[in-house]
Amino acid sequence: MIKIAVDCFGGDHSPDANIDGALLALAAFPDLSVILSGDEDKIKAHLATKKYDEKRLSILHAPEVIGCDEKPTDAIRLKKESSMMKAVRLLREDETVSGIVSTGSTGALVVAATLRIGRLSGVIRPAFCPIMPTMNGGVVGVCDSGANVDITPDYLQQYAIMGSLYMKKVYGMQDVRVALLNVGTEKEKGDELRKAAYALLSETPGIHFVGNMESRDLLSGKYDLVVCDGFAGNVLIKSTEGAAMEMLKKLKRDISSRLLYKLGALFMLKMFKDEKKFMDYRNYGGSVLLGTKKVVVKGHGSSNDVAVFKCIEQAYRMEVGALPTDIEASLAALPVKETAQSNA
Amino acid sequence: MIKIAVDCFGGDHSPDANIDGALLALAAFPDLSVILSGDEDKIKAHLATKKYDEKRLSILHAPEVIGCDEKPTDAIRLKKESSMMKAVRLLREDETVSGIVSTGSTGALVVAATLRIGRLSGVIRPAFCPIMPTMNGGVVGVCDSGANVDITPDYLQQYAIMGSLYMKKVYGMQDVRVALLNVGTEKEKGDELRKAAYALLSETPGIHFVGNMESRDLLSGKYDLVVCDGFAGNVLIKSTEGAAMEMLKKLKRDISSRLLYKLGALFMLKMFKDEKKFMDYRNYGGSVLLGTKKVVVKGHGSSNDVAVFKCIEQAYRMEVGALPTDIEASLAALPVKETAQSNA
Question: Looking at this predicted complex, what is its ipTM?
Fold first, then answer.
């Protein structure tokens, strides 16, 4: 039985969307059990009319909620009775619980996961890996999308290793083509960080490094995993999503501006709906945090029930694939770095 | 009379597009004269059938062309007879020539402009400022989009000052709302560079700093100028353009997939054409290089005649607005920074 804790509070549509998402996951995976963390009365009230396998669902009462505006370090210290922190404590104390899914404060989740759940041996810092759709119907992972903004080439090497394993285990990819986000495709492009990372990635065993990627090619389908610092990753993800969504909004406005266009659009209602769905990040699950001892998935604050279900599915597949164990083993297998001393 | 040198070689559609763009500019601005740099025979052959004011056009013979794959520092040293380097030398030697427009190698142009034309007094490093369309019909500048990847907060302060003047002079903006590209809108977001830059921009006189901007809001119309390091700026511009264009391509493919959609699209042919035009960077001129002694505009390699015309228009308006002089004066007027010593 795989046990996942679901933080039921802190999202825009919580607790309803989170509870319903958990029930969808219970129905989908017979060897899954969920622990719903949050205000017991509210959770019970919502569950009252639902049908589900009661043996595989339990409630962890937590009266408090961490708000998105709270300073993460304060929140995890002061809000011990919050739905997020009680779930995190459960992960820490109960080794049979595999992971957590939350739609609450990103900052608090990163800090709590890093400090309370802890990093896997060898991991410098856990990093976020969200998923984007590609134009040929596949997906591409981006690691890191914002957990670490000040980094060194070693981080990028770890992102490549952790992300490759993740794309294999959760998306069934055989050969994960890893690219380094850069300002041009040529080897010598970029700042000092990128130049050093290019060299390091080129000689990293166990990954398939295909070189630099320009940001305009993120959705092209030519890459499976893009590694970058958290600042650039955040810009990449948000400007890609933002531009695609703005373009669809503009189309909608432009269609409304002329009767002729409105007439034409009548034939294409389903298509426009599909396009919007295509770019809606909620359909691709959450950002997983790679490098922690237990699996951690951060769903978007605006997650609906399907989005929460997808997050739980990600956590479930990471655990089924023994991702944490494999990350640890892969990092341990890296050749020991030659230091200035060993060169001497 | 305002004199602009036009590098006629090095672009995908050069020299024809470059020459035709120059002729469009001559027709538009009666006090403009152009110097066409490049192979004289080829330029003359193209001009043979054209009508234009011959007194305002001259040719600077240059038999060589700098390729896009050449290393910039080598190219400017070895290709002294190239269309770009001869134009740059003219700018250096003839003080009546105000600027250069080129669709050739970006790297060579930056290096040549910085080393051969020179920085304005007080400028740390010249920076690129391309323009993007906003959803409410306006434009937004992004500085820097790739000239400098390793920077300090002082650079961002200079980008804000130079970019604000540019948006005023060339786009007629009265109040330029300057934002700092960051991973969140809150003041304390980002890495060390961004935190320090936020503080510095907040206390910079003469600019209207409105705080942090998330990349998804670039096209929103809420900002007039975004300042960022060249790495993030490059990611921002290219992923925004890339995602919008990919979205349109996807629409096109999806429309082709069903007869019903094709039928609807017949009503909307003009609209789809307009959308494509809206996101086509060639319609917004080139990336101007801010901070050099003379005006420098880099048009996209794929520029057609209208795109080259827009680049020349940018150079012309920068010179009419005395942008270089004003940048120098504004930087000189900055309060002298308190150093550790002056605090002591």
Answer: 0.87
Q: Whole-angstrom Cα distance, residue B117 to residue B100?
A: 10
Give the tokens for residue A60: 């962890």
* Distance from the A131 Cα atom to the nearest Cα atom in chain B, whole angstroms: 15
**Which CATH number fits the domain A130-282, given the four candidates 3.40.630.30, 1.10.287.370, 1.10.8.60, 3.40.718.10?**
3.40.718.10
Percent of all residues in chain A with a pLDDT value above 90, rounded to a whole number:
77
**Using CB atoms, which residue from B183, B246, B275 is nearest to A231?**
B183
Domain boundaries, chain A: 1-123+291-323, 130-282
Give me the residues of A, 142-171, that contact B with CB < 8 A: 146, 149-150
| Interchain CB distance below 8 Å, A135 and B246 | yes
Q: Which residues of B73-94 are buried (b: 16+ CB within 10 A; e: fewer)?
A: eebbeebeebbbbbbbbbbeee
State which CATH number among 3.40.718.10, 3.40.190.10, 1.10.357.10, 3.90.550.10 fits the domain covering B1-123+291-332: 3.40.718.10
Element (H, E) at A87: helix A83-93
Cis peptide bond N-terminal to A20, omega within 30: no
User: How high is the pLDDT of residue A341?
Assistant: 46
- Is 3.50.50.60 the CATH number for A1-123+291-323? no
Q: Which of A150, A217, A244 sits opposite B247 (nearest CB)?
A: A244
DSSP 8-state class, residue B113: I
> Which has more confidence, B85 or B70?
B85
Q: Which residues, including other chains, have CB under 8 Å from residue B253's CB and lie 6 or more apart?
A: none
What is the tens place of the pLDDT at every residue in B73-99?
999 899 999 999 999 999 999 999 999
Tell me whether strands B2-7 and B32-38 are parallel, antiparallel or unpaired. Answer: parallel
Q: Which of B217, B218, B210, B214 is nearest to B142 (CA)?
A: B218
Whether the per-residue pLDDT at B320 is higher than 50: the answer is yes
What is the average pLDDT across A96-104?
97
Quick: pLDDT tens for B141-179.
999 999 998 899 999 999 999 999 999 999 999 999 999
- Reported as a single tens digit per residue, the pLDDT across A191-222 is 889 999 999 999 999 999 999 999 999 999 99
- Could you report how far apart the first and last alpha carbons of chain B are, in Å? 52
Residues of A in contact with B226 (CB under 8 A): none
Q: What is the pLDDT of residues A47-77, one digit of tens each?
A: 999 999 999 999 999 999 998 888 888 998 9
The CATH number of B129-283 is 3.40.718.10
d(C-alpha B252, C-alpha B275), whole Å: 12
